[in-house]
Amino acid sequence: MKTLGTWGVVLASGILIILALLTGFEALMVAAAVVAGWQVAVSAVAALKVKVISIDLLVVVAAIGALFINNYWESAAVTFLFALGKALEKTTLAKTRKALSDLIEAAPETATKLEKGEPRAVQLWELVPGDTVLVRNGEQIPVDGTVAVGHGGVDEATITGESVPVEKTAGSRVFAGTWLRSGTLQVTAEAIGADSTLAKIIHRVEDAQDDRARTQTFLERFSRWYTPAVMVVALVVGLATKNLELALTLLVIACPGALVISIPVSVVAGIGRSAKDGVLIKGGEYLETAARVNTLVVDKTGTLTTGRPALTDVISLDSRFSQEQVLYLAARAETASEHPLASAVIEGARARGLSPDLVESAEPVTGQGIRALVEGVEVTVGSAQLLSEPADTAVLEELNAAGKTAMFVGYGGEAIGVVAVADTVRVDARQAVESLHARGIEVVMATGDAARVAAAVGAELGLDDVRAGLLPEDKLDLVRQLQAGGRTVAMVGDGVNDTPALAAADIGVAMGAAGSPAALETADLALMADQLPRLPHALSLAQRTVRTMRINILIALVTVALLFAGVFAGGVTMALGMMVHEASVLLVIGIAMLLLRPQPATHAV
């Protein structure tokens, strides 16, 4: 029977049933039952060997019992429908794993290696770290590495879920399995084959799809007791009523197939969809937990903000100098400074079309700023102490209160203007916070930064709570405090000083995890792209998945209840019971497969 294959068994059994109906030759019905039921019986016996009473055993007992009471049609129909259901179940489950198979198919097998400047086609296993590979327009990038020469647009959808090509130049990171859509790149190989980010994602998704959700584990334990209980009830009913056909029908309609399959197929589909969207979830248990998250604790720097200071304000205090002139003088003075804020002023000037040249001479003043000579005139950038004339500090105080670092620009000892820099809020942060609020999730910022800076960011984004000046242990205490209050907490941090809080949170989230093996392995939920709106997207998908689980469990239970009522009311036969049973299995699988569809545009990022 094994050589026929799953669908071969179904086809052979179906043909035998049709021939039996046409010819009236009952031996063909028996043959159909044997063909369809053989593999089911093998599975039942294998389960018994490990002391498990499986669903397959219910079907086998019912089919053999029907043969004993000369009900050959019922025996053939039950085994045929069960085999058909198994075949369809196997096929649709394979479809739910399509996201994983797409990732596997995306893995490159060959590369173009540059040897002494000459390209040579090689197998992937021939490459070693340090080799240079050539990638032309339209080709797949075969390794994780760094662009050495060239520029082009790379489609990173297989890694980050982002459909818009990302511009890559010398020094940019690239990943195996992505596609070069424009330009030509020479890439220095760093991670090859099983060491690549794509391989780690595939491994992670494989493990996650096989990981059991808490609900699934409970249902499996339930079915272990439920199945033998059904056999006992059927035996009691048969003895009490002296109606063997009724007892056998009870065995068939009580099969908990839809109940058992409802959870794993939902988990596989949900995790597969999230992987396609560039979000990795560690497993079914974490998927269920993510669906219950009602509080998000998030670090500020690099998560809600860019993590890089940028020029925010330029104010002229002297009518002789325009804003552009104030900024130009400040930027020229800062060309001699090594202070982290200096580059923000210089880049801000360049962004406005100014080209600050190096100053003639300069003198950094510790704790105050810088004093420079610009075209023979002293220009200062920093505190009021660098000025020889008194200056009104009200403007500085107002900017500082808003969480910015403000500095006087002095010319010849007089204050002519003010420039301010700050770690700016990410452009997508407000969208993410609003999406989280729309899902009923509170957002709490936990940062080690100063209170005034944290308060400014919190006000701009509309956060529910702001905790500033926190040490790593304070963040851990905050997470535990929220959990003690009955909150389900997700934590987003940089994975370094936030590690204790990340570990204690119900869900630890790594953002921008592409190319970070540690983040991929340790995070409960990893956002491959450095995009915060992916988090509400992922939590929404988790909620959809759990909602699908509940709907499927309800369908399974209602189906069994209705079939039981139908049997005792009369009218539900073994064959009809099995048909309804298999229909319910396919229905719950079909509902779970809806998770594979992209989320509506309102959730897209």
Description:
With 605 residues, this protein is of the alpha+beta class. Among the domains are: 82 residues, Calcium-transporting ATPase, cytoplasmic transduction domain A; 136 residues, 3-Layer(aba) Sandwich (Rossmann fold); 120 residues, Calcium-transporting ATPase, cytoplasmic domain N, CATH 3.40.1110. The chain has 22 helices and 21 strands. The strands form 4 sheets. A 7-stranded mixed beta sheet has the order 9-21-20-19-10-17-18, with helices on both faces. Strands 3, 4, 5, 6, 7 and 8 form a 6-stranded antiparallel beta sheet that branches. Strands 11-16-15-14-13-12 form a 6-stranded antiparallel beta sheet, sandwiched between helices. Strand 12 and strand 13 form a beta hairpin. Helix 4 packs parallel to helix 22 and helix 21 runs antiparallel to helix 22. The two termini are 50 Å apart.
Care to give the gist of this entry?
This is Copper-translocating P-type ATPase. This protein has 605 residues and is an alpha+beta fold.
Name a few traits of the molecule.
Calcium-transporting ATPase, cytoplasmic domain N, 52% helix, 7-stranded mixed sheet, alpha+beta, 605 residues, Calcium-transporting ATPase, cytoplasmic transduction domain A, disordered C terminus, Rossmann fold, 21 strands, 22 helices, elongated
Layout: helices, strands, pairs:
Layout: H1 5-23, H2 26-49, H3 55-68, H4 72-96, H5 98-106, E1 110-115, E2 118-123, E3 132-135, E4 144-155, H6 157-160, E5 166-168, E6 173-174, E7 179-180, E8 184-191, H7 197-210, H8 214-241, H9 244-253, H10 257-276, E9 279-281, H11 284-292, E10 295-298, H12 300-304, E11 305-316, H13 323-334, H14 340-351, E12 361-365, E13 369-374, E14 377-382, H15 394-401, E15 405-411, E16 414-425, H16 429-438, E17 442-446, H17 451-461, E18 465-467, H18 472-484, E19 489-492, H19 499-504, E20 507-511, H20 517-522, E21 525-527, H21 534-569, H22 574-593
Helix pairs in contact: 1-2, 1-4, 2-3, 2-4, 3-4, 3-9, 4-22, 5-7, 5-10, 7-10, 8-9, 8-10, 9-21, 9-22, 10-21, 10-22, 11-21, 13-14, 16-21, 21-22
